[in-house]
Amino acid sequence: MSVKAFKLVPAVEREMLMGEKTRINIECIECCGKNLYIGTNDGSIYHFLLEERNSPSEKTSFSVTKQLHKYLSVRKAVGELKAASALNRLLVLCDSTITLVNMMNLEPIPTGARIKGAVTFTLNENPVNGDPFCVEVCIVSVKRRTIQLFLVYEDRVQIVKEVFTQEQPCAVAVDGHYLCLALTTQYIILNYNTGASQDLFPYSSEERRPIVKRIGREEFLLAGPGGLGMFATVDGISQRAPVHWSENVIGAALCFPYVVALDEEFITVHSMLDQQQKQTLAFKDGHILQDFEGKVIVATSKGVYILVPLPLERQIQDLLASHRVEEALVLAKGARRNIPKEKFQVMYKRILQQAGFIQFAQLQFLEAKELFRSGQLDVRELISLYPFLLPASSSFMRSHPPLHEYADLNQLTQGDHEKMAKCKRFLMSYLNEVRSTDVANGYKEDVDTALLKLYAEANHESLLDLLVSENFCLLTDSAAWLEKHKKYFALGLLYHSNGQDAAALQLWIKIVNGDVQDSTRTDLYEYIVDFLTSCSDHELVWKYAEWLLQRNEEIGVHVFTRRPQEEEQENSFNPDDVMSCLNKYPKSLVKYLEFLVLERRIQKEKYHTHLAVLYLEKVLHLKSLETERSEELVDTQAKLQSLLRKSDLYRAYFILDKISGSDLHMECAILYGKLEEHDKALHILVHVLKDFAAAEDYCVWNSENKGIPYRRKLFHMLLMAYLNSSSAERELVMAAVDLLNSHAADFDAALVLQLLPDSWSVQLLSSFLTGAMRESIHAQRMSQIALGLAKTENLIYKHEKVKLKGHTTVLSDRKLCQVCQTPFCEPAFVRYPNGSVVHTHCAANRLVTSNTNHHFSSSSGRT
Q1: Chain segment 653-678, per-residue pLDDT in tens
Q2: 464 Cβ neighbours under 8 A, 6+ residues apart
Q3: Chain centroid to CA 42: how far?
Q4: Is it the case that residue 119 has pLDDT exceeding 60?
Q5: Measured between alpha carbons, how far is 169 from 115 in angstroms, rounded to an integer?
C-alpha cells in the first residue's frame, strides 16, 4: 500500500555539470555535509556546495553552487570517491589507484601517498584502530582473491592486513573486524582478525550485480536471490524479514525506517518495519543510489537528484487520514529512534488516540478501547461526541488540533440508530471500567454523570448499582436527566447519595402512594422500611413512622425492632415513646413488646405484664367469636402459655384475675405454679383438664434449676393428686403407674412404697422398683468412690508433709530472704517446696506471695 515517504528533487542538472559536452557521464558521487563531489568518466572531479531551502509552501529545493572543477592527471573514469572529513581528505579511485587529495582545493597531497592495485574500496565506519587521525580502508585488490586493509593518515598510508579468499571478491563492506564479501558465487562473513568465515547464501555474480551495504552496527544489507533484499548480521543470521524488490536492482540505500532500491526504471521504497513496498517513483537511466548521513542521492549519467524524506509525523498523519491504522502505528513505533524521547512520547500518545477514534468510527470497539487506554486518552474527548452527556458545568474543551473529524455521534453514525446504540453500549462499558482508575482522576464528576445519563436512557440495571456505590454524579444535571426519563426511584438514591434523605423519602413515598409512576421496585414499601431502619436521622424515622404503620402494621414496626445493633446498645429510641406511638396499632404493639421481652430480654415488669395482657385479650377475643378453633387462636394461646411459663416478671395475680371466669384452665395452672400454689395447679391439670402429660411437664419445667428436693416434692404432689382422688378412676391409677415407671429417679422410693395401696402388685411396679434399686445402688457406689478419692487425697497430703519435715533448713544471719533480699533477724520463716526461704511477713503479703510463686514456683505449688 502506497504512502508518500519521499519526494524527488533535482540537485545538479546536466547544464551545470557538463554544459555542451555530451560525452561526459557521471560515474560516482560523494557527499560530506554540504559538500557534494562528482566523479566523471573523463577523469574530472566536480565540487559543489549543497544548501537546502524550505519555502513557506513546504516545497523543498536545493541551492547548488559550483566550487571547483579538477582534472586528474590520468584521463580515465573516476571509480570511487570517499571523504575523510577528519583528515580533510578525499580518497579518489582512478585507474586502480587510490589518491589522497585535499577536500577543498582537490590538490593531491604533497607526499604523493597513494594505494595502488585497487579494484574497489570502502571505509570502515566502525574502526578498530582507535586513532582519531586516521581512517581504515578496505580494498578489493587487483591480485586474485585478495583483500587488503590500510590505515590512511593525513599524508601517508600504511598496510595493515592482507586477507585471501576462496573466490574472487566482487564487492565488500566492513564493520569492525568483520568483512561482508560478495564472492563469485556466494556471500560470506569473514573475520579478518581470527580468519573465521561464515557462508550466508549463494548467488551468481554473472546474472546480477551484487549489493553489499553496511546499514548499522554489525549488520549488512545484501541483494539476495529471487528479488529479495536480505539482512544479515556478523553472526550470519537475519534479525529482520527480507524486503521484496526488483530482480534487476542496481543499488540500495537506507533511510530508516525505509530501504530504497533502484532499478533501470523505478525507485522503490520499502519499509523495514513491515516489509511492505510503500512508494514507487519513476526514474529512468538511474545507475547510482547512495545514502550519506541521512541524505539519499540518486544519479543518472547526466544529473544528480536528492530523495527528500517527508517528516515521519506527516507520513503517519497521511496513513491515519487513509484509515490505515496498523501501518501508522508500526511506522510510529519505528520512528522512536529518530525522535527525542519526550517529543516521541507526546507524539505517540496522540497517534494512539487518533487511531482509537478511527477504530471507534468503524465500530471496532475492542481495538478502540485498547488504543484509548494505551494513549491515555482524556475520556471526556470520547464523552463529548455524545450530545448532552457532559455536565453543563464542565470546563472541558476538545483537543486542538482535533483528534478526529466528527462533530458528534449523529454525524459519525449518519443517523443510524443501531450503530448509535452500539456506540452508547461501548461507552457505558468503557466508562464503567475506567471510572475507578487513574484515567478518571481529576474529572470523576464528568465521568460518573455521563455514565448515569447513559444508564438512565438505556434503562440499564447498573444504574442502581452506580447510585448505591460511591459516586461523583453531579446532582443538578443528574436529577434533571433522571426526572426526564421518569427514573424516580433512582432519583431518590441520588438524593440519598448527596445527603438529602428527606427529599429521597418524599419522592419514594409518592411512588408508593401512586402520585408518580415508577415500576423499578415492586417492594418499594419494604425498601423504605429498611432504609428508615438503618437511617441515623431519628427525626425522619418519627416523621414517617405513622405512614409506615398505616400501610402495614406488621412490617412498619420493623423501623423500631430491627435497628442496627450499635443503636440497640445505645437505646437510641425510648421504648415508652415507641409504645405511645404504637398504641393505635395493636399488631405493631404486640410485635414491639415481643421484641423488647423476647429478643432484647428487657427485665421490666410492665413490658412483660403488658405483653401477657395483650396475648390474653386476643385469646379471649378469638374465643368469643364462637368460631372453630383457628390457627391464629392456637398460635396466640401457645405464645401466652410460653410467656407465662418462662417469665417471672409479670404480675401473676393481675393476670389471674383477668383469666378468672374463662375456660383458660392451662393458663390458670401455670399462674398457680408461679404463685407456688402447686396443689391447685395440679388439681386443674389432673382433674379438670385430665391432661396427665401436661401435669408431668408442669413438674419438670417448674423444678428447673431448683434442685432435686424441690423436683421430688412436685412429683410426690402429682402422685398424691392421682392417688387421693375421691373416685378411684382406672385412668388415674394407670397415670400414677406410668408416672412412677417413667420418673423412678424423681421419687423417694421408700416414701412411695408407704403411699401405695396394698392391692398393687409388684409386677405392676416392676419398672419403678427396678429403676429405684438401680438409682439407689448407683448413689451408694458413687458415695463410696467419692469417699475413697478423699481418703487417697488426704494420704497424698500426709506423705508430702512427711517429706517436707525430712529436709533440714539451715538459717543464719548471712542467709537472705528471696523476696526482699534482707537477712533474717529471727528464727521464724516460711519455706517453699523448692527450698526458697522468705520472711513470714513477706509470705503474708499477697502481692509478694504472687511474685514469689511466679519466681519460685515448685512442682506441687504448695507451702
Answers
A1: 999 999 988 889 999 999 999 999 99
A2: 489, 490, 493, 520
A3: 75
A4: yes
A5: 18
Kindly state the cell numbers that stand for 154.
Answer: 593525513
- Round to whole Å and give the CA distance between 658 and 725: 29
Alpha helices in 571-604 (DSSP H): 575-582, 586-594
Question: Quick one: which of 580, 571, 578 has its CA closest to 600?
Answer: 571
DSSP letter assigned to residue 34: T
Q: Which residue has the cell 524521547?
A: 341
- Per the CB < 8 A criterion, the answer to whether 732 and 722 are in contact is yes
User: What's the pLDDT score for residue 857?
Assistant: 44
d(CA 529, CA 545): 9
**Residue 306, Cβ density class (10 Å: 0-12 exposed, 13-18 middle, ≥19 buried):** buried
Angle, helices 605-624/652-659, rounded to nearest 10 degrees: 10
Per-residue model confidence as pLDDT tens digits over 166-202: 999 999 999 999 999 999 999 999 999 999 999 999 9
DSSP 411-431: HHHTT-HHHHHHHHHHHHHHH
Number of other CB atoms surrounding residue 362 within 10 Å: 12
Is the previous residue joined to 586 through a cis bond, with omega within 30 degrees of 0?
A: no
Segment 10-21 mean pLDDT: 78
CA angle 240, 246, 252 (to 5 degrees): 60
- Strand 243-244 relative to strand 228-233: parallel, antiparallel, unpaired? antiparallel
Q: What is the DSSP string of 517-544?
A: ---S-TTHHHHHHHHHHS-S-HHHHHHH
Which tens digits make up the pLDDT trace of 691-750? Answer: 889 999 999 898 888 888 888 888 888 888 888 866 557 788 888 888 888 887 778 777
CA 78 – CA 44 distance, rounded (Å): 7
Query: How many Cβ atoms sit within 10 Å of the Cβ of residue 733?
Result: 17
Residues in the chain: 863
Q: What strands, in cross-sheet order, belong to the sheet with 243-244?
A: 212-216, 219-224, 228-233, 243-244
- Side-chain-side CA neighbours of residue 744 (13 Å): 13
Residue type, 587: K
Per-residue confidence band for 855, with pLDDT thresholds at 50, 70 and 90: very low
Start-to-end CA distance of the chain, whole Å, equals 104
Q: For 657-684, what is the HEC assignment?
A: HHHCCCCCHHHHHHHHHHCCCHHHHHHH
Measured from the Cβ of residue 464, the count of other Cβ atoms closer than 10 Å reads 16
pLDDT at 852: 44
Residue type, 713: K
The per-residue pLDDT for 565 is: 72
- How far apart, in whole angstroms, are the C-alpha atoms of residue 650 and residue 504? 43
Q: What is the pLDDT of residues 426-473, one digit of tens each?
A: 999 999 999 888 887 888 999 999 999 999 999 999 999 999 999 999
**Residues 6 or more apart whose Cβ sits within 8 Å of residue 697:** none
In this predicted structure, what is the pLDDT of residue 863?
36
β-sheet bridge partners, residue 82: 91
Angstrom distance (rounded) from CA 261 to CA 826 = 119
Per-residue pLDDT of 227-282, as tens digits, reads 899 999 999 899 889 999 988 899 999 988 889 999 989 999 998 888 888 889 99
Distances (CA, A) of 545 to 6, 552, 557, 565: 82, 11, 8, 20
Torsions phi, psi of 232, nearest 5?
-145, 140
Q: What is the mean pLDDT of residues 369-385?
A: 93
116 forms beta bridges with: 97
The helix/strand/coil state of 259 is: strand
The half-sphere exposure of 126 on its side-chain side, counting CA atoms within 13 A, is: 15
Average pLDDT over all residues of the chain = 88
Q: Which residues of 644-681 are buried (b: 16+ CB within 10 A; e: fewer)?
A: bbebeebebeebbebbeeeebbbbbbbbbbbeeebeeb
Please, are residues 384 and 398 in contact by the beta-carbon 8 Å criterion?
Answer: yes
